[in-house]
Amino acid sequence: MLIGHQPKPFLLAVEALTVSFDGFKAVNNLSFYVEENEIRVIIGPNGAGKTTVLDLICGKTKATSGSIQFRGKELTKLKENQIVQTGVGRKFQTPSVFEDLTVFENLEISYPRGRTVFGSLAFQRDDAVKQRIEEVAEMIFLKDRLDTYADQLSHGQKQWLEIGMLLIQDPELLMLDEPVAGMSVSERAKTAELLNRIIKDRSVLVIEHDMKFVEDIAHKVTVLHQGQILSEGTMEKVKNDPKVIEVYLGH
Amino acid sequence: MIITSRFFNRSELIGFVALALVLVVILPLSLDVFRLNLVAKYLTYAFVAIGLVLCWGYGGILSLGQGVFFGLGGYCMAMFLKLEASSVENTKIQSTPGIPDFMDWNQITALPLFWQPFHSLTFTVLAIILVPGLFALIIGTAMFKRRVGGTYFAIITQAVAAILTILIVGQQGYTGGINGMTDLRTLKGWDIRPDHAKIILYFFEVFLLFGCIFIAQFIRLTKLGRILVAMREQEDRVRFSGYSVANFKIFAFCMAAIFAAIGGAMFALNVGFMSPSFVGIVPSIEMVIYTAVGGRMSIFGAVWGALLVNFAKTGLSESFPQLWLFGLGALFIAVVLAFPNGLSGIWADYVQPRIDRLLALRKSKSGSPWAGNSVADGAPAE
């Protein structure tokens, strides 16, 4: 394996990760490594365990065995909010924004300050906060919707808002679960543009089915099948892998 | 951008002025002392209702056991008052003078250790806040850290209410049992029973109530208030934004407990006794109904809910004692089905827009500011 002669430490090292739900191994002895500033896309058929892998990394699901190291820190022992504070951000498949709050307030909650009970009581909406929120709002095409309640946004706008909420956390590792699913063609193009802008200076782990989109952004692709890695490498390599064509791309 | 730095927005200001007018001017001028004392009793539930607005309305944590905290606050206050009423002089006919009468009836011959510090008023005041606060902290930590929430949490709070009632009734010698602590007389030598004391206590209670309203409003306006709302809808998103959801729930639950306890303590002072019938499941559910009727998202609405439901309860149960409980049940169902935001929701949806339109009309005619008229129209209508 690579471990012996790695040029620099990996940002994320997943090793021998296994999770079993009542005996069913959704993720089975999985190992993969993500480098700094790498954009990694995970693809695979339904039920391959893609979302479960993200759940394991962000702490939503507890691993049965194996290790997840982020900058040398063992994530499997941390709570979800502690994992976020080490610099891992996660976007869910369905847009999960706070619909009873405005776009501004949604972003403000994600601003990484005053995260304790008393910190949030003392939190002041100062210029630094406002400025950063406006900056991010502009990036996610919602600059003039800051006072709109999130339940009035379209599906695509909600997805953008959630991406913005991650962006304002400024995570070193960004995990996105199907960021363009359910979007219109024009929204999809805009999202690709947005993602290309925000993935600079950070590592990104993306789950996506849209192959054209994958080709556009991926540095490296990991194909999962039944909780295990079927193939890994550049898009070119993966696309021509006969095993991948058989279980996934051929359909 | 509409970012209000004001403490109350316009309609909240109207709500505040209307409530202050009713509680400080209209009711004291129009009611006799007996009825005013009844209002004081109703208002003790308003404290609980304000706590439930934070905890249930904002945080989404339904507690069906607020009677526990109301009771703990009430009993702390009652213990102090009972000790003062049980001076050696007052109790010289007992076989052990100087201890509360119910202890003497239960063959207890010395004041139990946990009663001793309640000789001190300072300790009592601290205990009214800290005992329920710590108890809520323990329950909250045990439940929320394990991610017990929703219906399960509500059922557990009910169980706690039932357990505490059984404990109080069972430990008759230490608690006064089913009869509770009666015959409370003086506070630091000041008789709490005559009419003028009732009036002073009423105003003191209204003062505390506004204190709690301000604290609740302050919390609501901080980022913590918005995190509570966020948590109610998307708990996971809050968690994955780097917050410990459990800690925020514990905070909301503790605040609700402390508000309830202040209400309980005022109950003991105003009504002059405390008993387990204000601790159990039924009173706890009634407290949730007050909040639901008033509007669980509105601090002022909750106060109106507590007042109006209790007025109705007194009125109806005086004339149709058997019908009252059915009425209460029907009211709850009606509110939940038809008006999920209670009276304050009706106000915001139907009354407020009309007032606004009227004012806009008047403003365009004369250019006069909005204040004044709406307050006078507003208060009784709600």
From TrEMBL, chain A:
Transmembrane segments: none
Keyword ATP-binding: yes
GO function terms (MF aspect): ATP binding; ATP hydrolysis activity
CC per GO annotation: plasma membrane
Alphabetic keyword roster: ATP-binding, Nucleotide-binding, Transport
Gene3D superfamilies the UniProt entry points to: P-loop containing nucleotide triphosphate hydrolases
Occurrences of domain ABC transporter (ranges): 12-251
Entry protein name: ABC transporter ATP-binding protein
Species the sequence originates in: Bradyrhizobium retamae
Lineage: Bacteria, Pseudomonadati, Pseudomonadota, Alphaproteobacteria, Hyphomicrobiales
TrEMBL record, chain B:
Molecular functions (GO terms): branched-chain amino acid transmembrane transporter activity
UniProt keywords, alphabetically: Cell membrane, Membrane, Transmembrane, Transmembrane helix
Transmembrane segments: 12-30, 42-61, 121-144, 151-174, 199-219, 240-267, 287-311, 323-348
GO annotation, cellular component aspect: plasma membrane
Membrane topology: Multi-pass membrane protein
CDD domains attached to this UniProt entry: TM_PBP1_LivM_like
Pfam families in alphabetical order: BPD_transp_2
Top-level lineage group: Bacteria
Designated name of the protein: Urea ABC transporter permease subunit UrtC
